[in-house]
Specification:
Number of helices: 7
Number of strands: 3
Strand content: 5-15%
Strand order of the largest sheet: 1-3-2
Shape: flat
Order of helices and strands: HHHHHEHHEE
Radius of gyration: 19 Å
Oligomer: single chain
Structural class: mainly alpha
Length: about 180
């Protein structure tokens, strides 16, 4: 497993205030609407191609898996909110470890409940991806510590990087309740 005390798995350094307020916030406010317009245009184009692919699937039923994989590989890879995006709340809370830890705890608990209450144990509920903007002040080591207590591990196939993105997978089994 990983050494959680390794500096690479710790919290990311606090960005200087000038960089945060004079560079990141204006870039986010200017480019995020443009990013969303491009994303929506890309989604419309992808669904247009999907309709054509659906016609091909009707004629050749074996092409269905390939068409679904193509859609997942295109829209699933383009994030709706880019990793470089910084919200004003995140800028104000820069360096606040307790805020980021509470944020990580809520996200992991919510996703864990979703996995454990899923009636059919769907695969997409078992995967979770956290960008560095999400756990910046807490660190990737903290995320893994909290997530492993709830049945999450690093994804066996998809790669994680402690400074950019963590990809986790749940084992799919419900937790044992010892409160009785």
């Amino acid at each position: 497993m990983h050494d959680y005390d390794d500096p690479a798995w710790g919290p990311l350094p606090v960005r200087p205030a000038a960089v945060r307020w004079l560079l990141l916030l204006p870039l986010t406010l200017v480019f995020i609407p443009l990013w969303w317009v491009v994303w929506i245009f890309f989604a419309i184009c992808t669904y247009g191609v999907a309709m054509v692919a659906e016609l091909i699937v009707y004629m050749m039923p074996r092409a269905e898996n390939g068409a679904i994989r193509v859609l997942d590989a295109t829209l699933g890879r383009v994030p709706f909110v880019p990793l470089w995006c910084v919200t004003p709340v995140a800028l104000v809370r820069e360096g606040d470890t307790a805020y980021h830890q509470a944020r990580v705890d809520r996200r992991i608990e919510k996703q864990t409940q979703r996995v454990e209450t899923s009636q059919y144990r769907r695969e997409y509920h078992r995967d979770m991806e956290l960008g560095a903007h999400y756990f910046r002040g807490a660190g990737a080591g903290y995320v893994l510590r909290v997530a492993s207590a709830r049945g999450w591990t690093l994804h066996p196939v998809l790669r994680s990087h402690p400074r950019r993105r963590l990809r986790l997978r749940h084992n799919g089994r419900p937790r044992v309740d010892f409160r009785n």
